[in-house]
UniProtKB/TrEMBL annotation:
Superkingdom of the source species: Eukaryota
UniProt keyword annotation of Nucleus present: yes
Record's protein name: Centromere protein M
Example of a GO cellular component annotation carried by this entry: nucleus
Keywords: Centromere, Chromosome, Nucleus
InterPro entries: Centromere_Cenp-M (IPR020987), P-loop_NTPase (IPR027417)
Organism this protein belongs to: Grantiella picta
Amino acid sequence: HLATSLPLPSERDHLRPRIDLIVFMIDIKSKYSLKNVETSLAHVDASFFLGKVCFLVTGVGRLNSCSVEMNAVCKLGETYCSPVLFCELELEGIRVSTAQRLLRMLQICAGHTPGVSALSFVSLMRSSDDN
């Protein structure tokens, strides 16, 4: 399910499936994109930041046309203890591998991977990023 911003409209709450993972997409070419994500973050329950949120930054293949500073995006990941994935949607191989990473994260967050929780997965990603 896709939403352009949060909070989600309440009129269909009773039909909404459980939310296992929230992926905030940031287009590196749009300051509005980052501002929209920052505004939406206030509507996410704090418990989701324990392994069920990630930031997906698109357009990284065109850094010369950036409107968003990479430091601002990385700071979001640090502030909310959430992974940041970078991709270029126009390149099929990168788009496919990014989709596979997101699906794997979703499987873990939804509890479909025995022995791995969303929280332990994020801590593993963080320790590998720090090395």
